[in-house]
Amino acid sequence: MSIWIKVLMAVNVWIYRLTGGMLGSRMAGQSVLLLHSVGRKSGKPYTTPVNYYRDGENYILVASNWGKESSPGWFFNLMHHPETTLQIKRQVVPVKASEASGADYERLWSYVTGQNPFYTNYQKQTERKIPIMILTPK
């Protein structure tokens, strides 16, 4: 990830927290939450702004990483430490993450690409199947 993207994400987290999500909770027409994760190798806490979608009570995250050949770090962290929290505006929600598969994946992929067609372009840029994470409130 480039230094500029890291800086942009850090600024977004700071503004989101400072304003309770009044600023930073929408980017390019998409809803943004703050995902709290624990580094799978370092054990350090991370906070990452991520686009999200709703599927009933669940929160849906797409691990597109802008179509790069590797999934984003937060995806691997969630696979290693699936119990975490996310912040939507001022609300903190404890969740358990799981990776979508089979018919659930196909249904959710159709849903998220209908909401954000960039995911279709990202999939064309990479040979990996872009993962979708389901975060279920506990």
Description of the molecule:
The radius of gyration is 14 Å and the shape is globular. Strands 1, 2, 3, 4, 5, 6, 7 and 8 form an eight-stranded antiparallel beta sheet that branches. The protein is 34% helix and 34% strand. The chain has helices at 3-19, 73-80, 102-115, 118-125, and strands at 26-27, 30-38, 45-51, 53-55, 58-62, 83-88, 91-99, 132-137. With 138 residues, the chain is an alpha+beta fold.
Give the topology, please.
Elements: H1 3-19, E1 26-27, E2 30-38, E3 45-51, E4 53-55, E5 58-62, H2 73-80, E6 83-88, E7 91-99, H3 102-115, H4 118-125, E8 132-137
Antiparallel strand pairs: 1-2, 2-3, 2-6, 4-5, 5-8, 6-7, 7-8
Number of helices: 4
Strand content: 25-35%
Average pLDDT, rounded to a whole number, is: 95
Question: CATH topology, what is it called?
Answer: Pnp Oxidase, Chain A
Distance between the first and last residues' Cα: 31 Å
CA-based shape: globular
Number of domains: 1
Sum up the structure in keywords.
34% strand, alpha+beta, 138 residues, globular, eight-stranded antiparallel β-sheet, 34% helix, Pnp Oxidase, Chain A
Q: Summary?
A:
By secondary structure, the chain is α+β, with helices and mostly antiparallel strands.
